[in-house]
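hiii so my PI (J.) wants the whole complex modelled not just the main chain, which honestly fair. so below is everything: two entries, each one labled with what it is. i double checked the lines twice but i was tired so who knows lol
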Amino acid sequence: MILIVTFLVIAMLVAAVSAYFFHDLLSAVIASCMVSLIASALFLFLHAPDVAMAEASIGAALVTAVFVIAIRRTKRYEE
Amino acid sequence: MRKIIGIILLIIIAWGIIISLQKIPFGTSRAKVADYYINNGKEETGAANIVTSIVVSYRSFDTLGEVTILFLAAIGLGAVLATIKRKEERKTEKASLILFTGCRFLFPPILLFGAYIFIHGHLTPGGGFQGGAIIASAFVLMYLGCHDKKKINETGSIISESLGGLVFVVIGLIGLAVGAHYFLNNFLPKGEFNTLLSAGIIPIIYIAIGFKVGAELSKIIDLLMEES
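here's the output for the full assembly
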């Protein structure tokens, strides 16, 4: 249990930091989506399924879709 | 250089949050209000899910405010995007057969799951907001997978959105007129605990919220996709 949570937290940290460093904005958006997804799993481990559901559907699905649409409209690569 | 400054600022903020969180005694004893909700929530609201009994019964006025905020956000986005002229049709690659069929196959089960989440909001985890967001994500899938074929029925989305808000406010006003005379008073019978038809007005309000949130979020996605 504690091992799974530790692994998830480390993966979340890696995803968050890599979202900051990516020059390809699409990859950055996917990395931030991964942060939301892992956060939702952690909420589930903390016995908060309501929050986990909201985080998974809004944070991981809808926000990612909005960012992807915004990238399609602007530029994909950062200078 | 900018990135290094950003990382240093982030570390300082994280340190501040850690320092301030250490002062809060987590998990020692419950506050008085939380204690009251946990002990009396079941009898007073009839909802098996305590989170729902707080969100829709004790704090339902706040929920009305949240729904209004979402409504205003959708209106603001529509107003901003309405001023931008539509560009000429961009050429989009046609989705492959597997993607197209997969999207069309997954769309109804996701809708059904969202409806299940908000209809059973008073029994199982989840509720109107979560169910509405899941329904909107089904529309996202449809738009990304085969958006050249399908489009949201505009009248249907407007009708379900307005009807959801109207049902919420009208039920609140009925509660004001009947019984204990306060806004969103739970005036319907509580029914048998832990069955679908229980908890008075809570399932009705959650169904209304589910329709409203689902229509609003999918309308936002629709507006954004249309402009891009």
